Hints:
By secondary structure, the chain is mainly alpha-helical. Helices cover 73% and strands 0% of the residues. It has a single domain, classed as MFS general substrate transporter like domains (Growth Hormone, Chain: A, Up-down Bundle), CATH 1.20.1250.20.
Amino acid sequence: MTGPTDETRQDGRCHGPGNSASETDSLLENRGGEAQHVDEDPPDGRERWNHPRVNRHRYISVNLSFLILGMHDGSIGALLPYLERYYAISYATVSTLFLVPFLGYVTAAFCNSWLHRSVGRRGIAFLGPAARLMGYVPMALHPPFPVLPVLLVIIGFGNGIQDSAWNTWVGNMHQANELLGIIHGSFGLGGTVAPLIVSAMVARLHLEWYTYFYVIIAVVCIELVFALWAFWDATGAVYRQKLRRDAVGGVTIRTVLSEPITWLLSVFLLAYAGAEVSLGGWIPTFMIEVRHADDFLAGVTATLFWLGLSIGRVVLGFITGRIGEKLAITGYLLLAVVFQLLYWLVPSTVGAMCFVSLMGFFLGPLFPAAVVVATKLLPPEYHITAVGFAAAIGGGGASLIPFAVGAIAQNHGVQVLQPIVLAVLLFLIGVWLAVPGGMRKGGLERA
């Protein structure tokens, strides 16, 4: 396979003890381990989505990857009611499906730096979809329930390595807020279409729950071929050459974790991802059990949440950087709290659909803004390790908080979703206010 061009420029953002790596030939390295030609840097030293030219294809493949990430996260919640019936299991048992991907994300966080040095972004482009297929193909065969958590750990690893790698790559580009907003908008789009597909296939066409995975397997196969082609020249040798050229090395994960901002943003992403996936995952069950909506309408409500999230990431991504991340995210969080209260306290199905959409809209920009803040407050050589660690902790929030909702709902009902999410949103405001830099634009750069 030959990539679109070999005008490749890599971000050397990965580091660990001993920056040497094996030069042996492999599926994921070019012959002889020699680096490809590196295009000249743009005038401001930062890559753009369309410069070098090969970045156009790569940026498209990253959007496809995030679409699949969204389809995964958006489908679990939509499938919960059907999984409960199919396997005859409780809230607490089925909610373990939210918990286990955290193990895959944590493994990805500790492997990411080494993977970049060894096999480059080409390796990430191959291993992410490959791990997903290793999970989705058996799931399509509807195995016994105890097998599902194991498969989700493997999927979590594939999602984790791509989540941190692509966030870091795009987060270091020119106009990072806008570009991150678009890729996270693709995530939201995936989360939007997944409940619709599940509802259409299972509730309307009366197919079994596992037929959804036929669809996602097909999309992942397309991603595997296209991403591997787009990143074919982005080998480990190219990555290591960039590290040497920038004289970057010797930064270990321990060094990165000694930075308070790494932990602050990790906690922020943990709480944010927990709120996002709790809402996206438990909205269908809440609408069925508490608001007495039918299965299809419950799925549509979840779709509207993900749609609002997707639109908010794209639209507000063009506003956030212009008024400053600190002020913008504070305002978005306050508005999200308002719509969360309305969703909880106004007992109307139509109102719930509106409030959920608007809550998703204002929650949308939070993750990409946190990545931009990390790239502004941390040295460049810390970026991949710091963002990878923060993404893993965020994956923990996306696992632990929805699991907690399910465990508590087992005894107290799914209505516990609302006060838990409200508490998490208020906690997010407190964490965000602790981020260095004032509310004025440019405050982060001066922090």
